[in-house]
Amino acid sequence: MEQTQATEMAMQHLQQLVDNIETVIKGKRSQIKYILTALLAKGHILMEDNPGTGKTVMAKTLAQSISGAMGGDSSVGFKRIQFTPDLLPMDLIGSHIYDEDKKEFVFKKGPLFTNVLLADEINRASPKVQSALLECMAENQITIGDTTYKLNKLFFTIATQNPVEMEGTYPLPAAQLDRFSIKIIFGYVDETTELEIYNNYLGIANNLQHIQQVLSMQEILNLQEQAEQVTIHEELVKAVRNIVWETRRHPEIILGASTRSGINFLKCLKAYALVNGRTFVTEDDIFDLTIPVLDHRLMYRNKEAKANALPGILKTEMDRLHKLRITQ
């Protein structure tokens, strides 16, 4: 009975959060669900698209919807880093400065010490700077010299990148891409929604300035725990295994998915089910998440392979699952 009440409460909280975000972000329910999936899976998300599609506003809205650690008036910590070619690792991590009063060097924390981090246009910085994110995203800590600093329990990175064809961009290293649970194309809204935005852009801007804090940080942490309790059928676990293995065998894929990728896939499936109001994973969840979770982790022989290899693997596995007619 207690588990049922906890689940119902989780559903209510998630609906509150989605509704609150949609007062500012119009026509992006699918993208919002992917972002919340990465958050509940204790992962991070990479959003690719051209400037001006609302990625930065999305990150701000999410952060401002969550109240601080003590449930007070302030929202959770939110920092935005604009990645540029001249950015240095210390600009992210922080540096030691000399304290005249104490007569010693003290560490001044950088913007990575926050709850929700927006890494804007991450592929405009050099790989050396991008690598400064690796430890904090993977292990929730930052090591400087002999000292290791633990980050907050809630640490969520929303990174944006420009299409790789744009001038002044660097491809993200494979190790960095692997730290993102999900990668999505944020995309433009449809014509009807865009007209609505034009007619009410002042009201939307006002909503962002006065966004309500609908959940506390502790409630977000509770949702992360609730996501871990979502059930997944053994055949669906096998499906994840099969897809991961096939990426390693496919002749058009140079680098397949790792075991860590498969574990991350399972976490995202559970979180995605909860975001969609269920306590169990379905075949449709695998269909929706395979490409957002795995595609950016793979290396293909060419563009044609990138367009066809993973969708082909997914279709084969979905056909197998449909024949089984799994029931929860």
Automatic annotation (TrEMBL):
It comes from the Bacteria. GO terms for molecular function: ATP binding; ATP hydrolysis activity. Transmembrane segments: none annotated. InterPro entries: ATPase_AAA-3, CbbQ/NirQ/NorQ/GpvN, ChlI/MoxR_AAA_lid, P-loop_NTPase. Residues 246-305 form the ChlI/MoxR AAA lid domain. Residues 44-181 form the ATPase AAA-3 domain. PANTHER family: METHANOL DEHYDROGENASE REGULATOR, MOXR FAMILY PROTEIN. This is AAA domain-containing protein. It comes from Phnomibacter ginsenosidimutans. The lineage of its organism: Bacteria, Pseudomonadati, Bacteroidota, Chitinophagia, Chitinophagales.
